[in-house]
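Researcher: Here's the sequence for the chain we discussed earlier.
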Amino acid sequence: MWDIRTGDVVQRYSVGNGGQIAPSCCDINCSDQVICVGSNLVNNVDDKDAIVALWDVRATEPSAVITEAHSDDVTEVRFHPARGNVFATGSTDGLVNICDMAQLPDEDEVILHTLNSDSSMARLGFFGPEGEYLYGLTHVESYFIWHAFPQDDSEDSEVIVEIPDLRERLSAQGIPADYCIDSMYDQHSQRLYLLAGTNTGDVNVLHVNKDGLALAATLHGGHNAIVRSMLWGQNAGDDTFVSAGEDARLCLWTPTAVQSTPAAPATGKMPASHSKTSSARAKASPY
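Model: Thanks. This is the structure I predict for it:
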């Protein structure tokens, strides 16, 4: 852990096993008290399983190590935005686990339920007014929306949206997309957005609803190569984006937008896009 004011390391975390654990992802809970780390598959650890480890931020050794959640690399861990004891894990084994660390130390009870994407997971996250839903993006650009806390174990109770190939779906709508970056949730408008990029550096921001995808804005001119990650500043009280690309650029995008089709005066916020037939489209410029 670093102090961003000085750049100094103020805390180091280790999981033992002679340094053989290879961390692959991490997150911190909403109270900033617990860190969760997923690992790559390590052949000499617990019958070739990857691990999920939890730390109290004040301690150097983990408070719990979960060894039976996944059978392959853990690619994503994400805490619930309001329930600090609940987190989700995704893996290249295709599984997504919803976990409750309040059940520890009983590892058999930690996993509340398991979702199956049948493909290697790349990104996931809770969203919704109460964080009651979960989105998932795979490495082959398929996309899922699940009930995060289904009432029963049937598949119908879990899956809300399934898009087998986002690039194919967007191409059919005339929206260029070579890959998908992540999803973001706007708590104020209660909208979920998907970020899809092109190899030339453009990022299309799409509103996700149960019936389809609608283009809300295009971020153009900041990057000239693949965009790997984006951060939305709404948690800091603004509408700016930060993007990072393979062109070694970090771009800060202002909320100022210019409508490319006749519409209401630009306000800097993403225009309403409740259906995939909406023609609203905006372009924003970085500084």
